UniProtKB/TrEMBL annotation:
<protein>
    <submittedName>
        <fullName>Bifunctional diguanylate cyclase/phosphodiesterase</fullName>
    </submittedName>
</protein>
<feature type="domain" description="EAL">
    <location>
        <begin position="24"/>
        <end position="283"/>
    </location>
</feature>
Length: 285
């Protein structure tokens, strides 16, 4: 599409930018119906104990099976859902579905041990007044113990959080729900601030794990991770690492004292049956 901009000059619109804007707009308007039509689904990625290599649970990661565009990752539509407020019902749907799935894993094979489920919360859900009561209802409805649930909140969502924002998280933590600080290390938060937060787990961002991909590992990243782990442990927080892609990374992070790991080295996000198989292999030998 070219637009005449007077006399002898032509200006061309950027067709790619146009396509992006249309898609963005199209996706945004399609979101509510997509939820009604059941176009969202969840993949689960195992969380592995670094000490003994057993699967301890999984993180629920939402996807959208769009009728025209195929499978879309959360980075494509979560920001749009946050913008329109659809994230509240969508987030509630993810929570309910994932909690029911965790209960189903537990019922099907007791020998896998109490598998835990991690669910991401967006900042909009934190300020929504129904968060605590919805979570209680969902846990009770599924028959899942609160301590089998971990809610992941990004570090940036809690930077400068006042007491009103922290109140629902404190209530959930008192009930036994774990709160994890997701993408930790990217948000420039004041480390002393950690004491104020009802958080039990730090999820170290993938950018730190990356420095451990080569051998020998990046010495600065080693020092940083070492420092974060020792600070976390001194505050009674557990450390989970994201984005572990190689055995060298896993070994290095285990030596550094990280507790739990997640990444392609163990498994990509996949359907719920897969997690079950992985957990069972661990449990039986
Ligand atoms: P996150 O919570 O930090 O999730 C980890 C992301 O890293 C996932 O991307 C996962 O697929 C990816 N990942 C895992 N292991 C590896 C690895 O070894 N290498 C690499 N390169 N990547 C790895 P995904 O599924 O695209 O999700 C992106 C983000 O979308 C998530 O980041 C989370 O912030 C958000 N998200 C996902 N599901 C939900 C949801 O139900 N609600 C909300 N509010 N946000 C969600
Ligand atoms: Mg997460
Ligand atoms: Mg993360
Ligand atoms: Mg991340």
């Amino acid at each position: 599409r070219a637009k005449s901009a007077g006399g002898n000059r032509f200006e061309f619109a950027d067709p790619e930018a146009d396509a992006r804007a249309i898609t963005r707009h199209g996706l945004t308007t399609a979101l509510p119906a997509a939820l009604d039509r059941g176009e969202f689904f969840i993949e689960y990625q195992p969380l592995v104990h670094l000490g003994d290599g057993t699967v301890r649970g999984a993180e629920a990661l939402v996807r959208w099976l769009h009728p025209q565009h195929g499978v879309l990752g959360p980075d494509r539509f979560i920001p749009l859902a946050e913008h329109t407020g659809l994230i509240v019902p969508l987030g509630r749907w993810v929570l309910e579905k994932a909690v029911r799935q965790a209960r189903a894993w537990q019922e099907k094979h007791e020998q896998t041990g109490p598998l835990r489920i991690n669910v991401n919360l967006s900042p909009c859900q934190l300020t929504h007044p129904g968060l605590v009561s919805d979570t209680v209802d969902i846990l009770e409805g599924a028959g899942l113990e609160p301590d089998a649930l971990c809610l992941e909140v990004t570090e940036s969502a809690l930077i400068g959080a006042d007491d009103d924002l922290l109140k629902p998280l404190r209530r959930l933590a008192e009930m036994g729900v774990d709160i994890a600080l997701d993408d930790f290390g990217t948000g420039y938060s004041n480390l002393a601030n950690l004491r104020r937060l009802p958080v039990r787990i730090l999820k170290l961002d993938r950018s730190f794990t990356r420095g451990m991909q080569q051998y020998p590992a990046d010495p600065v990243d080693l020092k940083i991770v070492e420092g974060i782990v020792s600070l976390a442990h001194s505050l009674d927080l557990a450390v989970t690492v994201e984005g572990v892609e190689t055995s060298a990374q896993a070994e290095q992070l285990r030596i550094l004292g990280c507790d739990t790991a997640q990444g392609w080295y163990y498994a990509r996000p996949g359907p719920p049956e897969r997690l079950h198989e992985l957990a069972l292999v661990d449990a039986t030998g």
